[in-house]
Amino acid sequence: MTQKAINYGIVLYQLGISQDMVEEIKALVNGCPELEDALASPVVEHIEKRKIIDRVFGRYGSRNLVNFMKTLCDNDGFDMIHDIFDEYEKYAREQQDILSATLYYVTPPTDKQKAGIENFLMKEYGSKAVQLSMVEKKELIGGFVIRTGDREYDRSILGRYKSLRQKLVMR
Prior knowledge:
The protein is of the alpha+beta class.
């Protein structure tokens, strides 16, 4: 992720473009690779890109969105559009005080366990809500690992094995 993509993502959020509109645009770009190719291509003239943007994004009724897309193309940045969408979503969660975390597990947690993990994270980080992504990871043998930002809570059998092995090697 480049700083340029991060900055564009933040600007997109600050322009007041709704998350629903960003999701629609994301689906449009993902569903039409020709559109992405044309707007990212250095061969296509900027004036042609601006015409495409007016036709495609003008129907959303947001002048800010159209101008943002034109600026992005004028600065040859449309090839970063997916990173920009990711940064927009990340920044939106931060602004809404929603913590993003990933739970790696061997067996899926029950609803009660999942709620307990979310409550723990909300208290630990002082956030209003938690967006918890769930990833199955059989190599943990048992237990789970929670990763958020640069912190990791390892309560897995594999993690305990590695910790014990490290302690024994250090002796």
